[in-house]
Write a structure and sequence with these properties.
- The protein has 112 residues and is of the alpha/beta class.
- The protein has one domain.
- The protein has two helices and seven strands; from the N terminus they run ββαββββαβ.
- A seven-stranded mixed beta sheet has the order 1-2-7-5-4-3-6, with helices on one face.
Length: 112
């Protein structure tokens, strides 16, 4: 699969699978992570959206992974500011520790 760029996203396989809806989820989570309960998946419509920040505790920046716990599809957003008072995983953790929290979901798009 060759990633294709489109509208700020790198789409995987060139298939539009609700990138705009995923981006809306990103803004909701980034603006107020405490209000992320009950968000609907753009693909399967279940209320199974999960997210995890992974970043650098020195400058509080990193990557945000957002995925559906039901259909295991999601996105990653790079170069994000990690909100204050939110639990996040350090980039210094071994990858296997990060994988315990973030499943191997199908990446629909990556946004920088």
């Amino acid at each position: 699969m060759i990633p294709k760029s489109g509208g700020g996203f790198t789409t995987i396989g060139g298939i539009n699978m609700g990138e705009n809806d995923w981006l809306k989820l990103y803004f909701k989570i980034q603006n107020d992570p405490s209000k992320s309960k009950g968000l609907h998946c753009p693909i399967c419509k279940n209320q199974s959206i999960k997210f995890q920040y992974v970043g650098d505790e020195r400058n509080m920046t990193g990557i945000l992974s957002i995925w559906c716990g039901s259909c295991l599809k999601g996105i990653q957003v790079g170069k994000v500011n990690i909100p204050k008072n939110i639990a996040f995983l350090s980039t210094n953790l071994p990858e296997e520790e990060i994988r315990k929290r973030i499943p191997n979901f199908q990446l629909i798009a990556h946004f920088n």
